[in-house]
Amino acid sequence: MLNKTELKSKTLKKIAVLSVITSMFVVGCSNDQRYKREVDSNEDYLNAPALKSLIIPKGVSVPQEVGEYYVINNNVEGAVGKQLDIRPPELTISTIPDAFVVYKNGTVNFNVPVSYGIWNNIPNTLNKQNIQISSSDSTTIKINGAIITRKDEQQPVNASFVLTRQMHGSAETITIVLSALTRGGENLMSQPIEVQRYVVGLFNHIMNDVAPESLWTVPVKDSTDENKKDD
């Protein structure tokens, strides 16, 4: 028969082992970000057999073919199942009144009043993101080989940007171009979604940093508006 000391010692050992195993699972889950990009569903359909031609017995009439229900039996090209990235494209979000932004082919063009001081604030924004400026002057900022880590990616990317500024009276046009993008030695510049994700992501970081305080506060409804609605 075990005495109380032996029993307590064995119990503590079991708790210690379970704690280690639990911590391993927690660490594994925290490092694995694939669930943010993958479809979480049954994939048995990927192993479904190919369609066979319909055999029609002699003397049996069949309805006329309708193209609307025709199944094209071609080989699937591209990613399927868990290889398919389900994340939506990154969209430009301008937080500055009287400004507009356009994204096209790896380039963000942003027109904004000079009074907001966006260009002068960009170095501070980049510093917060641990992005080092390679060279800069009053009209150009160059970033070479910045290491950018996203929470929904397993590996960081190596990205290079060129930011330029053009003055138009009381407004300025800021252009952000992604000039290089690699991950683990793989060149991602030929993947439009990846290019958009990082050049637009940088723009949105800049916008988040200069957004007016009023945009971060939920407006309080005026009681008089509710009364008018009731009336």
Automatic annotation (TrEMBL):
Task: Write down the superkingdom of origin.
Answer: Bacteria
Which Pfam family is one of those matched by this entry?
A: Lipoprotein_18
User: InterPro entries under this entry?
Assistant: NlpB/DapX
The name of this protein is Outer membrane protein assembly factor BamC
Please tell me the species this chain comes from. Gilliamella apicola
The organism that produces this protein has a lineage beginning with: Bacteria, Pseudomonadati, Pseudomonadota, Gammaproteobacteria, Orbales
